[in-house]
Fold:
Amino acid sequence: MLNVLIEPLQYGFMQRSLFMAIVVGIICAVVGSYLMVQRLALLGDAISHSVLPGLAIAFILDINIFIGAFIAGLISTVCINIIRNNSKIKEDAAMGIVFSAFFALGITLITVVQKENKIDLNHFLFGNILGVSFSEVRDTLFIASFVLLIVFFFYKELLFYTFDKLGAESVGLPVNLLDTGLMILIGLTIVASLKAVGVILVLSLLITPPSTAYLLVNRLNQVMLVGVFVGVISSISGMYLSYYFNLPSGPAIVLVATTLFILSFLFSPSQGLITGYFRLKFNQ
Amino acid sequence: MTNSDCLKVENLTVNYRQVEALRNITFHVAPKRVTGIIGPNGAGKSTMIKAMLGLIPYQFGSILFHSQPLIQQRQYIAYVPQRSQIDWTYPATVWDVVMMGRVKKTGWLKPFSVMSRVIAKNTLEKVGMSDFCHRPIGELSGGQQQRVFLARSLAQEADIFFFDEPFAGVDQKTEAIIFNIFRELANQGKIVVVVNHDLGESINNFDDLILLNKTLIAWGNKEEVLQEENLYNAYSGKVSFFSHNSKFVA
Ligand SMILES: Nc1ncnc2c1ncn2[C@@H]1O[C@H](COP(=O)(O)OP(=O)(O)OP(=O)(O)O)[C@@H](O)[C@H]1O
Ligand SMILES: [Mg+2]
Structure:
């Protein structure tokens, strides 16, 4: 049994990718908790799809793809806000318009340049965790530490702001700054996760572990902690499944996370579908 | 009513894009009195409070306290939003919510002090919610939720209190508890502003009233404001009032 766990670790690429998957599982669960409680799941999807043209342009200009992706994500949120604030188009429609446009632009750019640059569109869409380099692991670790420190030090302000924006503003908290800060954390997290799961599946790592936790516990910090636990378990199990059964890593991680969500959905002591049914029967 | 301890709203006009919500409103709110803002749904009561707190921009007017713009003195303000502005499914406990009242006093990068915890405990006790400390806020009744928010505002140790419809979904017993606390705050010399669209028996608990319907219909002490003519203007004749034993009944 122990051998089963240790065997893959003799390969450097497996060590790197497993470590990467764990780090990504942690920050996605923490930052995704803020997305979930603010009902901004769609925004996570919008930003992740929107970073694609940034990745492509960074590739063409040969700059760090993290920077390209981040700028594209930023521009897309600005576009969404411009449309929402200056017309009667609602936020969700504005997101739909902007993120699909950016996504289309990104796919077009990558398709055009992929031949001469020997890059693969699929790696952008679904990640390529087995191919992570040491420097990519280092960059991700750096982003993750930054994100976690910010959340740790501004936890009480962010809790107040995400729970009651008007109340927070009324006491003089800089709500625009907090809002921008959260957007930046979300953008950084998505960018840091792209290598692992790609733009399409990153939403799952952001939303599924916190939602699983939300069915089990009642405070934001607990949602984050349990979410991290779920995220890390998913990452590790997903990587091993992918190693032994030759499955694509990103989807394997997502499927484990989804399985844990379904378990929580059915068996959560307070919220579970099946536990609720038995509680009703028992009480009769 | 014109001394400098009053909160003074002068010529306030608020628009949402093209829609005019409030036009040319002027009134003063005195300390040591419980002041109600009343008017029908959509009259602009919440808008008025939000504009006073600087939560929405206004096109014209001034809001002064001690001759300075009120929004520069946020440390003295406590505000409880209308129920519908809060997401009651948020994963927070009663304790989490009350401690939010201490965030600003605590300051950046610092954990809550022992002092803050003691204050939060005391305010919860005051509103009779100590036993619910660890309950998720979504699992409380409407009246209990209002009391938790009241505790949060008390924990802010403010001088000016704004409550937007604190009696929505609250039974008579809880309403009495809440009014007692308002009275206590007023007696301590605080400014207490309460939005209330209900014109029932409870209106007798206010000292002063501000009657709104997009424009200011009347303001001053409640006997002056609750004239049939004023109410007719505000509610377009849908309510008729008669005075009986010096109590007002709808
Ligand atoms: N964000 C907004 N954008 C545009 N119009 C708004 C907005 N908020 C309120 N209004 C409009 O402004 C007017 C006043 O609304 P407000 O919420 O202040 O009323 P209210 O007196 O608090 O009513 P209620 O008793 O229902 O709480 C209404 O006509 C409303 O439709
Ligand atoms: Mg209102």
Summary: Residues 3-83+158-249 of chain B form a domain with the Rossmann fold fold (CATH 3.40.50.300). The longest strand of chain B covers residues 19-29. Chain B has eight helices and twelve strands.
